[in-house]
Amino acid sequence: MIYCLLPPPELEAINRQTAKRYEFTPVGYFMLDKAGCILEADASGSRLLKLEQGALIGSYFSRFLLVHFRDDYFRYRRGIFENAKADPCEVELRRGDGTLLFAQLHSAVLWDSQRHAHVEWMTVTDITECKQARSWLSDLTQNLEQRIVERTAQLKAAEEQRQAELAARQRIEHSLRESESRFRDFAEAAADWFWEMGADLRFTFLAGRYQEVMGLCSAQLLGRTRQEIYADQMDDAEKWAQHFSVLEARSAFEGFEFKWVCPDGTGRLLRLSGQPIFDNKGQFQGYRGVGQDVTQYKRLEEQSRQRWTELARFSHSVLASEMASTLLHELNQPLGAITNYCAAVQRMLHAGAEHSPLFAEAVAQAARQAQRAAAITHRLRALLHVGRSQPTAIHLNDLIKEIVSLVEWEAQENRLVIETQLQSSLPAVVADRLQIEQVILNLLRNGMEAMEVTEDREKRLIIRTSVRDAQSVQAVVEDRGPGIDQAVVDRLFDAFYTTKAGGLGLGLAISRSIIEDHGGQLWAKCGSASGSKFYFTLPTE
After folding, report:
1. Distance CA 240, CA 229 (A)
2. How far apart are CA 379 and CA 328, in angstroms?
3. Which of 6, 26, 204, 213 has the fewest CB atoms within 10 Å distance of its CB?
4. SS3 per residue for 303-350
5. Is 0.85 surpassed by the pTM of this model?
């Protein structure tokens, strides 16, 4: 073996190069005393802890430990000094610049001449990347295990769902069979016959009572178009032309009605409905539909309409009778005044009195009262006339003033005050003047009758008008009677329901019908001790 002795300068350079190599290793070397104070630290240790070597000397290594790692560190050092060995310890350090570092500690004890351990030689290895890799691997393993559990659960759920879907499909198939049977029963009950037409609009299928209804067999209908079948029975050319245009447009139609004369001469009214059929490419395939014989239904409908017309005429007559009674009472006043003025003139003539202004005044008063009686008679004749409604633009305030003047004498006899609170510049409404007069008069009369038994407070009937919104106005008739129980309010507008002895129960029902026919509403708000309020609205022009 040949030894080559190098000059001291070259040997020192080699030592510096060797030291530099260790400066970039992820391992730092420290020498600690028994108390844990740093006695020595190499350049790698200084780099790991981000402090100068001089700043490390004299510091306790525990100062770099995070709090929750200190107990593990102290147990580790006790094991080193007591047993001269211990498993590596992993800790987390806070370096001089505040950053964190995961490190693994390895220690060895240096003995003095008496074999007493007094110095610890410790290596600090940077395991941050390894720790992160282990954490990532742990998370990956845990995630994989979780995904395996979830996938297993999904497969189990999928199998359970498949079994459930299979059972559901069986139930659906059974339900569909029942539904198909039920639908067939309902369809047969709702329609007299079923039909189908192809893309050329010729009948391809017929089922049901078509032969019984139309008097034609399938051979006379299948393969023919509607134009061919109904050619000689199209009583309304425009209606049929519109129907054929619907068919040509491949549109659905419902409730197409027409007259049909059977071969035996009997006439029927038939109704057809149909839906177009398209394939999955959107190509027109024809029509499917139903047919009904509505002859009897239309006959019953016409009879019902006639009954309602008669009932409306009767109701109008009843209401007219009630109003006529009021007007006849009103006639007593002008007729009595006319009688008194004429009697005064006769007395003056018999007494031989000369002509004077008194004669002219008496005759003028009698003429005015006669005109008033004529106006009342004219109103009564218009009221009793049953004809078509003629809506015109009217001012509700003027109408109310006229009706109030009509019942003013009756209010005075009953010591009752009628107060009007009418909003100025109220928009005009489009309505039948006579019918709205009937409603107002009916509400006023009801309020007056409600206060006949009132003795503990002033008898006051208030009627107000106001603009409700941009499309309607509102009127309120308020009395100070005993009120009506809330349980009865909902029935007030039922025909033939009344709370008055001897009443027919038609006034409010007819009034609501009139208001609703005009596009408005009529309702009531009644309290047990504060009187009643009746509201109605009418649309503006």
Report:
1. 13
2. 11
3. 6
4. HHHHHHHHHHHHHHHHHHHHHHHHHHHHHHHHHHHHHHHHHHHHHHHH
5. no
